[in-house]
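Q: Structure tokens for this one, please.
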Amino acid sequence: MFLREKSRTKDGKTYRYWSVVENRRVCGRRVVQRQVLYLGGLNDNQRAGWVRTIEALWGEKIKVKQLALFPDDREELPVLACETIRVQLDKIELHRPREWGACWLGLYVWNLLELDIFWGRRLPLSREGTIWLNMLKALVCYRLIDPGSEFRFHREWYVRSAMGYLLGEDVSLAQEDKPYRCVDLLLEHRDGLFEFLKGQWVNLFGAKHDVLLYSITLLKLL
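A: Here is the predicted structure, written as tokens:
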């Protein structure tokens, strides 16, 4: 963990704000930064104090330690070579659970179909730095797992899923306007996508057909 500075200029004066952040490894061996604690404005002494605190808590190399967990109502514990800890099961709480397995499977199917080959060159970065390819992947998984409106996608589903971790993105990917803007980028590639998926169907399954019917609705496009 380390301190990260962000600056903001207002009325000709620059203000600096600090946060404690950590590096987190995500899908594709990418490393993204996650804010652990927002500190606000700090003077030099306060900043130095936080640096010392971080170094004291996380500066040394993490040592692996084996532990054995047992419920606290168990009268006798076995004699083990490692340290034993009693756990108060009635005090355990689950905070911010996320749906992981279905999201992982959705991305696995995406990679199996090699859709990055088709969409990678057709969805460039936006001027603001939005990775439209990741936005599309999140929308596709949403349609597969728990389909609903774009409004529900950014207000509920994205923050309850593990898509951000798997894609190496933060919550800004699901800002209110982005799902709609992404959908607008897809329509001109509808016919090309059909031809690509037809080829993948043949390559993966050896499928043969004389007549092939498909839906042109937006739901099927995603």
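A few notes: The chain has two domains: 2-91, 101-221. The chain has a mean pLDDT of 82.
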